[in-house]
Amino acid sequence: MELSAALKVALLSSLLLSAVKSAEDFNDTLNLRQKSHVAGLCAQLIEPAGFPCSEHNAQTKDGFVLGLQRVSSSSGILRRQMGPPVLLIHGLFMAGDAWFLDTPNQSLGFILANRGFDVWVGNVRGTRWCHGHISLSEKDKKFWDWSWQEYALYDLQEMIRYVYTVTNSRVFVIGYSQGTIISLAAFTEPDTVQMVGAAALLCPITYLNHMTARLPLRLVKMHLTQVLLAVGIHELNFKSDWGTRIMEMMCDRHVDCGDLLSSITGKNCCFNSSRIDFYLEYEPHPSSTKNLNHLFQMIRKGTFAKYDYGFWKNLKHYGQLKPPKFDLSQIPSSLPLWMGYGGNDALADVTDLQHTLKELQSKPDLLYLENYGHLDFLLSTRAKEDVYDKMLAFFDSLGTHSSY
Ligand SMILES: *[C@@H]1O[C@H](CO)[C@@H](O)[C@H](O)[C@H]1NC(C)=O
Ligand SMILES: *[C@@H]1O[C@H](CO)[C@@H](O)[C@H](O)[C@H]1NC(C)=O
Ligand SMILES: *[C@@H]1O[C@H](CO)[C@@H](O)[C@H](O)[C@H]1NC(C)=O
Fold first, then answer.
1. Is 345 a catalytic residue?
2. All structural domains of the chain
3. Would residue 374 show up in a list of annotated catalytic residues for this protein?
4. Which of 11, 138, 206, 347 has its CB 3.0 to 4.6 Å from that of 304, i.e. a possible disulfide?
């Protein structure tokens, strides 16, 4: 069954609005309309800041063509002595632009490049920096038939392999939020993790059953994703015509956009809300309904496992009634890990992180910031001093340990 665009708007907005209770006025005109993304991420955001940047493509085993960007220092001297490769993996409804949204002194992508790292910017399937599929069109239902499981086992694996092959060096991986889910899932695969030199995870997530974020919990309770799948909405694009209208309705008339963000991420201490308009020129990026459904399954069931199709279909997909779990103890204890997490993070809950840590063989270096919410780790105006300098000290401490 295919619904008309008008019906989709009506359905989604009534579902979402009933989930949003706060009702402050918000009168700013928002930059929700899609910018023309003819130029790539390098040309739009990175080169204008004075950083050399080149576009690369990596094709996944199941036919998606992913865009990757390679960024180096804005200072010519550093550029010639390229440091170790670092691959950045963004969060849900984001893409590689998320690492470059503030000034060169504040944004992790720029900071790493100016510190001499060979910075590689990852973008998963479905985002606007992905160049589609070799045979499927975005209009096909099959184009959107994946979840973070495929981000991990196809996209991230392919991006790591690409960077490893080009640079001939093991790769440092930095993940944020959903980027940590897919990193940890991918690291359970021996073929992938052997190409990784170390990893730094911001707001690390594997288990989600203690998360306290108000809006997502309401949407889980409403069975939003199952409803969407049942009526044939497979792509979640808040910059499509109907998505834009829903966002405008939610942000303009019914709720403050900053409040909306807190109800999803928890209270952020150091996020500059006067920049929301600029952020919305780039975010949110599309994802699939199936992916959101997979995340909602984790919230309901408290498992870190593959997508659950229901008993009989699981049998067909996996040869067993329950989806196979990702076994964190498979991640080699020799892999150096660093994690930054916050006391006000409503998505990456501290109890869930304890669960993750118990299952890992190694003891990661931990940075705990009591007042930090989920977005602060990416967009805090003080993230450099609070978080990134400490992450860089971790990478420095590895010295020649990693083969670069
Ligand atoms: C929003 O706009 C309305 C009418 O234009 C105005 O009365 C109201 O004060 C505005 N609210 C805010 C918070 O600016
Ligand atoms: C960025 O940091 C550098 C070095 O710390 C400093 O010299 C420069 O003035 C800063 N730039 C801005 C715009 O703050
Ligand atoms: C917050 O954002 C505004 C608008 O971009 C900017 O002028 C201001 O300097 C930012 N504040 C901080 C602390 O970065």
1. yes
2. 5-398 (3.40.50.1820)
3. yes
4. 206
